[in-house]
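Saturday, quiet lab. Running sequence design on the structure tokens for the scaffold JK sent over.
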């Protein structure tokens, strides 16, 4: 199944929650509450991590947490462009997290495009963001930090 993925509420904006959603036939959304984002960013910054690298990697962690239970049903991912210029890195982080779980996914089947407001993924993300619908899962601080810190990087940026 091909799915589109959208985000409402930027990862780096700690005043609002972040919702990541996918849709195409089935719909699924995760919620990252403001307090979870704030605590994650505080902890990671204390470890010397910062900048655009931090946000693009957190976005990849969010994608992984959104997709990990569904990835075997998916054949293609179309991800809304949220961090222009960082698509290759986001794809690499996502693929590495999937591989650690024993999942191989064809890299040529992961695309970044502007999916627009007419997308069902956008509709799901915004509905959860505006509290018109419930998230299917609420992400915890431990889930974010566990996945983020498992990623090997070359130190603080």
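Result came back. Writing it out in full:
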């Amino acid at each position: 199944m091909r799915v589109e993925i959208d985000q409402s509420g930027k990862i780096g904006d700690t005043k609002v929650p972040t919702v990541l959603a996918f849709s195409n036939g089935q719909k699924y959304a995760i919620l990252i509450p403001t307090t979870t984002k704030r605590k994650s960013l505080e902890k990671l910054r204390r470890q010397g991590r910062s900048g655009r690298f931090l946000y693009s990697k957190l976005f990849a962690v969010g994608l992984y947490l959104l997709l990990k239970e569904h990835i075997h049903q998916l054949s293609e991912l179309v991800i809304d462009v949220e961090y222009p210029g960082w698509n290759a890195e986001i794809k690499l982080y996502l693929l590495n997290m999937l591989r650690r779980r024993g999942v191989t996914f064809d890299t040529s089947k992961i695309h970044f495009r502007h999916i627009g407001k007419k997308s069902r993924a956008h509709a799901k993300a915004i509905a959860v963001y505006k509290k018109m619908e419930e998230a299917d899962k609420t992400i915890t601080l431990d889930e974010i930090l566990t996945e983020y810190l498992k990623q090997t990087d070359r130190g603080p940026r």
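Notes for JK: The radius of gyration is 14 Å. Residues 51 and 157 are 7 Å apart (CA to CA). Ask whether to fix the surface positions before the next round.
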